[in-house]
Amino acid sequence: MGKVCVPRCTSAPCGAGMTCDASSGLCGPTPCGAAYSCADGLTCAPTRAGADAHGCAAARCDTDGFKCPDGWTCGPGPSADQNGCAAVSCVGGAFECPVNTDCKPSSKEWHNCEQRACTSDKTCDCGACINGYCQNQLWVCSPPPPV
Predict the structure, then answer these.
(1) How far apart are CA 112 and CA 50, in angstroms?
(2) H-type helices in 32-132, by residue range?
(3) How does pLDDT run across 79-128, given as a tens digit for each residue?
(4) How far, in Å, CA of 124 to CA of 121, rounded?
(5) Is pTM beyond 0.85 here?
(6) What's the angle, vertex CA 30, arms to CA 28 and CA 34, rounded to 5?
(7) Where are the beta strands (DSSP E) in the chain?
(8) Please, is 25 exposed, middle or buried when counting C-beta atoms within 10 Å of its C-beta (0-12, 13-18, 19+)?
């Protein structure tokens, strides 16, 4: 990759989320804090592993006050996401699987809800049996776009 000549940021403004470094004259990511707000689900933690160029990292439910969505709980587990939220299992009725899925304790899918296998549309809650699995809607086949 080659180099590109650009005007010093003292004479040309930096883009959104960028700040001019007066000593180098180059635009760089604005550090999180008062001048830059991290997106939802992120927190300002520049030293945390996985932090982006602004210093924003995944907000944790156990240390940063992140609220896990419905169907998820704060805690460890094989299904824990980057925020530390683990999927509530359908086993025991604590979570209700969506249509066209079944609760299977051995499943490695989220909430232990596995897509229902089928041989006909009658097996499915709604939608259709396609390629041996219940789908929530019919697929649409179309010719490829013109080149």
Answers:
(1) 28
(2) none
(3) 688 999 999 999 989 999 999 999 999 999 989 999 999 999 999 998 79
(4) 6
(5) no
(6) 165
(7) 18-21, 26-29, 42-44, 56-58, 72-74, 85-87, 101-103, 113-115, 128-130, 133-135
(8) middle
